[in-house]
Hints:
With 416 residues, the chain is α/β, with parallel strands linked by helices.
Amino acid sequence: MRKKFMAMLAAAAMMVSMLAGCGADTSGNETTQKATTKATEESASAADKGTDAKSAETAAPAAASDSGQAKELSVGVVIWSVDDGGLGFSVKKQLEHVGKILNVNFIFKGGSVDAESQIKDVENLIAAGVDGILLCPMVDTTIDKFTAMCDDAGVKLSLMFRSVIDEDVRSVALAAESFVGDICEAEEEAGADLVDALVEAGAKNLALMYCEPGNSVTDRRQAGINARIEELGINVVTTYTMPAGTLSAGFTEGANSILTTYPECDGFLLSFGSDGGIDAVIQLVLSKNLVGKVHVASFDTVQDTKTAFENEILVAETCGSQADALFAFMILYNELQGTPLSDEPIELFSNYVYIKNTEQAAKYDEYWSYDTYQLYSEEEIKNMTKVYNPELTLDQFKEIVSAYGYEDVLGRLGAE
């Protein structure tokens, strides 16, 4: 049997406490994207974080036909936002592109930034009859609840932008029938890199704008930042903690309070900044005429990257992580087509794209905007699937993931 007895007990107990029935969601945060099909082929190659658990005893979904005709699928996407002008928006645009190629109907649930709301989103997606769910959980402690819900409904689950750090939760997830894997970035290393960028810009008195503990991604980012600051002996004037899902107004209020209380502050480092958070801090620095005196480095994506660098406020940002969602979906897609890349959950690291100057920012705005270019062509996307590329192996898929980055995208798109 693929589940250990204790994992089954844990999942069952969570389901008793969690499931209270599913209702249809009619909020303005839900959007759907209907897909059409096409065809072709090419080969491919990505980063490892190891795989665990799940024996091959469980029956797989019915495989797609040998003729290369993929089954039409319905997939729910639970994410913090789809209209933030940054990462969430980019994820939606990218998946819509993929859906048209692979005949996938996506149902987007954006706007849920707490555990309770995400649980309701998953309940509603299950009630809507989706085949699988692509999820960015706000906290680790809800992941075992999601796997229990999906196990009960026979729905597959893939995590984007997250790896499961809590060992108890992870053991339950790995034993779940529904869990196919997760993708996350090397957050600690990225945190250290952002510290270095601020130091190179001349910042000596940093203000850290952090997410409250409990989010596995921001916890890891903050650990990397703290370790690098301690190693370099950098002065931290304050650490300002905010709830996950804080919107731009919260960032403005926090940054304003910091600059008022600590006028010596010459650098902000944000461990999260989606939904306009980074933009709010940059605009505050502009409004206070502190250009050249206060610098900003952040995770997540500025809405106007090029202008932020031209104003000489932003010195570094980690972006381009929308590919994480694509890779997490491809793991899920292969599983749903009955052609899984592995009999065990797949856990991988994806790469950030680092932007540190106006030239890189201009390239990023052009090639990652989804207006003219897509990160992967139709041929490249189909070659990440076994239904169109039967020779695809897990190792080849890992090579594709590990290759992703600034130079990789520009090279494949033929940019100068």
